[in-house]
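Lab notebook, page 48
Experiment: co-folding of the full assembly
Goal: obtain a model of how the components sit together before planning crosslinking
Operator: M.T.
Materials (sequences as entered):
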Amino acid sequence: MERRTIKVDVLARVEGEGALRLVIEDGKLRDAELRIFEPPRFFEAFLRGRSFMEVPDITARICGICPVAYQMSAVHAMEDALGIAVTPEIRALRRLLYCGEWIESHVLHMYMLHAPDFLGYDGAVEMAKDHPDVVRDGLALKKLGNEILRLLGGREVHPINVRVGGFYRVPSKRELRELRDGLLRGRDASLATVKLVAGFEFPDVERDYEFVSLGHAGEYPFNAGHVVSNKGLDITPQQYDAHFEEFHVKRSNALHSRHIGHGAYLTGPLARYSLNSALLSPLAQEAAKQAGLGPTCNNPFRSIVIRAVEVVYAFDEALRIIDAYQPPDRPFVDTPVRAGVGYACTEAPRGMLYHRYRLDTEGSVLDAKIVPPTSQNQPSIEADLLDFAPRWLDLPDERLGHLCEQAIRNHDPCISCATHFLKLDVVRG
Amino acid sequence: MTGKPRLAVWKFASCDGCQLSLLDCEDELLAVAGAVDIAYFPEATRGVLKGPYDVSLVEGSVTTPHDAERLHEVRRQSRTLITIGACATAGGIQALRNFKDVRDFTAIVYARPDYIDTLATSTPISAHVNVDFELRGCPINKHQLLEVLVAYLHRRKPNIPPHSVCMECKARGTVCVLVRGAASCLGPVTHAGCGAICPAYNRGCYGCFGPKETPNTVSLSRKLRNDGMNERDLQRVYRTFNAGAEAFREEGDRHGT
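Observation: model returned without errors.
Model output:
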């Protein structure tokens, strides 16, 4: 028996530590796995006993790339537990903050992590030698997303201004207006990004995913709506646990998720777009059409095009919010404490993020459950590999390995995010 | 070989936010890449140049037996080793496990704990190897990161003031949130570097840069207690992102239910 093993020990250009392993026997693919060896940090264990007010700042530390997503799911879940509702002005500012994170995170992934695959470079710095304009454009776009985060959040990584009930401080009309020129420039530049990435060469593959994202929100989803799928699912975040379960596989320090009775599913840009493309702004819809996208997309390699379209939308939406902005009378609504359970799903750049907390009468956390997008996507990522790799088995190991790396990178996995559940087996060191 | 200094970026248990700060230097990144060879930085590139490295930036804390071994290899390969962020300098938020009895965890039933290999504690890099410079913050300030890099490339001492956040509030013109009773604030005992963002946003400092040089935590705790904070909350405020830093650990231990 001829056995060929292809290993990529450290997956580059993903957030966190993962590895890839393919086993080929007698010319047939026997196994494909994404191993996650990022050490677990046990957030759900040490959240117990913390005050509900601390949770948005603590869970932000799960991920330095998408801290806003953790803050948003945390505050919405806490508000659900406390039975309070925020004002429309605060809701709009939360969407604006999310626009900043989508721009920053998507542009980082498109230009610095993903584009080098399509243009044939090891990384963006190497790519800058031949394509300095491309890298400079990407950095300039990313900076505009970070400017929203800096004004509204206080800083780019682990913003300090998000609190249960609203914000610690809300910006003045003038402060927001100062972002306007940059965002207008960014919106134009993002249209050029769509053109650039739509011109890349994509493997001609499709998969019949079950797409899961927020939907039925009357708007392109950030932090409101039902959890819906293209295969008939339509539930509230409060019903999440009855429809999804997590399981533990040995090769991974992250739990995997499945839709009970259905199996693997996919969350993230491909899912969001395919379930909500009609809700994009006219400009973003036109950009998608020009890029050759239909109303849905089942080719994961084209996720980079969808990210570009979502960046156009994020600039458009940020401008809409800034132009309509009226500062609220108070930066936050009161948060009277009571015992209860709260649930929330919001759309992190790389997919849906579920939080659930149970609070006691003093507002301390009794237990916490956090399901990041990468845990939800891991079974689909491995299914992608099992589907695609057999078509590439004739290629040399290096090329085959690289294509599989790309197949993983398509979903922008955030491995730091994915390793927080697993509690512990103690080895005394 | 270009003869340029070689920079490596290493990750241990962390959120990636501190190394992301390097990529967040949108205006300076290409200049940095021109001044050094980025020899190892898996978050940014597949390309790998062999060691030794002139400057290693180390993010994250040590939480597994394997990482403890890997860290010694990183030290052997590095002329200068700089830790970036609260995880690497104090054990990070994951050092909260250090305060738990193992029985607290085993009482909770988990899927397959036998699949996981982890240490009982989360420890800073300096608990394992010699460290040349520690840059504070959860996350670090990217301008301070550039200052440290430039300083080491020119073999001079980095200009990173060890005073408290209070100095930065004064420089920024922020009225003291503690004095005007707007919020409880760890600013008087917390290392400067963030630019005193929280008080400027109407909230108290929550200590994400860890203890300043010679902090008077006892005095601050007395003030916070007089302002109405209970013992449990007093322990909580010191036990966050720098819970493992000596001054915060000791002060946290003095309080509780």
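Interpretation: Residues 106-111 of chain B have pLDDT under 50 and may be disordered.
Next step: discuss with group before ordering constructs.
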